[in-house]
Amino acid sequence: MTAGVREQPRDADRPRTVAHLGPVGWLTALVVLAGVGYRLWLLAHATPPTNSDEATMGLAALHIARGEGFPVWFYGQQYMGTLEAYLAAPVFALAGGPSLVGLRLPTLALYAVFLLLAWRLTLRLTGDRWFGLLVVALLALGSDRIVKNQLIAGGGYPEMNAAGVALAVLAVDLATGRPGRRLARWATWGFLAGLMLWVDPLVLPYVVATGAVLVGFRRRELWGAAGALLGAAAVLGAAPLLVHSLLNGRNPLHAVLAASGANATAGWADRLHGGLLLGPSLGMGFCDPGRCATWQLWWALALPLLLALGAVSAWRALRSPASANSAGAAESAGAAGSACAAEAGVSPRVSAAVRLALVLAAVATVGAYTVSSSAGLTPAESSRYLSCLLISLPALLWPVWTVSRDGLRSSATEPRGIGRTLARLVAVVLLVATVGTAAHATWRAAQTTSATRADEARHAELVGTLRQLGVRHVRAGYWTCNRLTFASAEQVVCAVVDDALRPGFDRYPAYRREVDRAVAPAWVAPAGSPLADVLDERQRAGNLDLVTIDGWRIYLPR
Fold it and tell me: How far apart are the first and last CA of the chain?
């Protein structure tokens, strides 16, 4: 055992046999299976819909699997690491080729890891298994925006939540002084922190917040081998970023700021609307696909209150005698959290500190998003930048749960005032509304599967038709090109053009060079698109032959 680390109660760490799961354990296991099964069903129905950005990650995975390249960054930019491509490459190699299912299997596995670690974190922080069931149930649900973040291999989002909650779990164990494999835990925390700096800096508030907990509780241990190992592991995790920056003399921070809209302008009214009203409701899974009904925006109004309650509750627990002495439960939510954390074998002060860290990380995430121009310019799509808020869900809902839980208990000796009864009623309504709104958004997302599957079938027909026609090289719009190249496993190579037929943004320049060398590339456009209108004029002028299939138009040069 590491010097200076006091032995902690181990009851919560002992493995529970299947026979001892109990009703709440079985319910939790069923909910976990339901959450994973729901996403597996979506995957089988090609939902959520793919796009050329996800196909770009798939092409990177294909190149890695073939040994043709080992990209550090998402093709066409100098930020957002390609971890998803490296995870999918072995799947492609074993399956004998690329596929959308193969690309998303690693992201599905990352979601399962996130769900299990979130349950573990909730138990470590609160010791309340019924509350753990509630958190798992909420995270098992999945609105359109949520499943896009969790399943689409578009760069960063599927792995951020799993890594962020793992950092929090490790921080709890290390700060509490849990014995056994401590150096391995320090190294794992450092490696994940460095890895996320390479993958996507959006999770940085959670790295800083959980790191502050470690410094606050284990600064002496960090001065020794633990600190050296953590630092070395962090450098190893961030090695792709560091090596690329040193060799090319480029600062990835500049690219990140440009992508966030730092070079664009948006009014503060639009930023506040997108960052504080629309963004949280969309980003945390309470809205219909692509839009938020007015009634679904209630969560954005509740979030500031939950952040304030979570911060006050955690601070009171951190400063209360119950935390310092691991005393019995008090009436306040903070003291209740301390008592439950003690039952879980976690220092109550550590539990309170980690909950406070999660709340502050959520505040920093919302604040950083709100001040960015993306919140004002593209709030519906950029709400994905708030995906890490799900990591803070146990800390946000714990004060509400303790009030509603105490209100459901009957006690003949406990005085019951109108104020306390009303508070408990409000807490119960808030929890029910949270689950109900998320469930409704999940139901609306599930309704999109038939349309998405039909679109994927039309795209598969497009690929098959091009192969039958012997077309090897095409020009098309941005959102067509890489998706087409990936779906055909590079049997069809595409170069991007805009609606005026001018060269567009090719994320992988080698494709343009190959198409430019081709004798007579074809053109592809979605039916009814502006690009199709321009090409129709050329076809009527006698320069192109037209082949039409459902949803697509193929133009062959004469």
Answer: 78
Half-sphere exposure of residue 508, counting CA atoms within 13 Å on the CB side? 26
The 8 Å CB, 24+ separation contacts for 430-435 are 430/302, 430/400, 430/404, 431/134, 431/397, 431/400, 431/401, 431/404, 433/298, 434/138, 434/299, 434/397, 435/134, 435/137, 435/138, 435/141
Residue 207's CB: how many other CB atoms inside 10 A?
21
Written as one letter, the residue type at 199 is: V
CA 450 to chain centre: 24
Nearest alpha-carbon partner for 505 in 481, 533, 471, 538: 481
Strands 473-476 and 552-557: what pairing?
unpaired
Taking the C-alpha atoms of residue 183 and residue 176, their distance in angstroms, rounded to an integer, is 14
Please give the DSSP secondary-structure letter assigned to residue 551: T
For the segment 199-215, what is each residue's pLDDT rounded down to a tens digit?
988 999 999 999 999 99
What is the rounded CA–CA span in Å between residue 41 and residue 454? 15
Q: Are 214 and 189 in contact (CB under 8 A)?
A: yes
Query: Number of H helices and number of E strands within the chain?
Result: 26, 5
Residue showing tokens 């998303």:
104
Task: Report the predicted TM-score, pTM, of the whole model to 2 decimal places.
Answer: 0.90
In terms of DSSP bridges, do strands 473-476 and 493-496 run parallel, antiparallel, or are they unpaired?
parallel
Enumerate the β-bridge partners of residue 288.
291
CA 305 to chain centre: 23
Residues 6 or more apart whose CB falls under 8 angstroms from that of 169 comprise 117, 120, 121, 124
Nearby residues of 276 by Cβ (< 8 Å), 6 or more positions away: 300, 366, 370
Strand 552-557 to strand 544-549: parallel, antiparallel, or no bridges (unpaired)? antiparallel
Rounded to whole angstroms, the Cα distance separating 394 from 119 reads 9
- Which sign, positive or negative, has the C-alpha torsion 147, 152, 154, 157? positive
**What per-residue string of b and e applies to 125-156 under the rule 16 or more CB within 10 Å gives b?**
bbbbbebbbbbbbbbbbbbbbbbbbbbbbbbb
CB neighbour list of residue 35: distance below 8 Å, 6 or more residues apart: 111, 115, 136, 139, 140, 141, 142
Could you tell me how far CA 430 lies from the centroid of its own chain? 24
Give the Cα-Cα-Cα angle 467, 468, 469 (nearest 5 degrees): 90
Amino acid residing at 225: A
- Residue among 132, 137, 209, 135 at smallest CA distance from 172: 209
Element (H, E) at 460: helix 449-468
pLDDT computed for residue 328 by the predictor: 38
Q: Are 190 and 233 in contact (CB under 8 A)?
A: yes
Please report which helix (H) or strand (E) contains residue 547, including its range: strand 544-549
Per-residue pLDDT tens digits for 136-189: 999 999 999 999 999 999 888 999 999 999 999 999 999 998 888 899 999 999
On the question of pLDDT at 244 being above 90, the answer is: no
Nearest CA to 295 out of 436, 472, 394, 469 is that of: 436
CA distance 517 to 475: 12
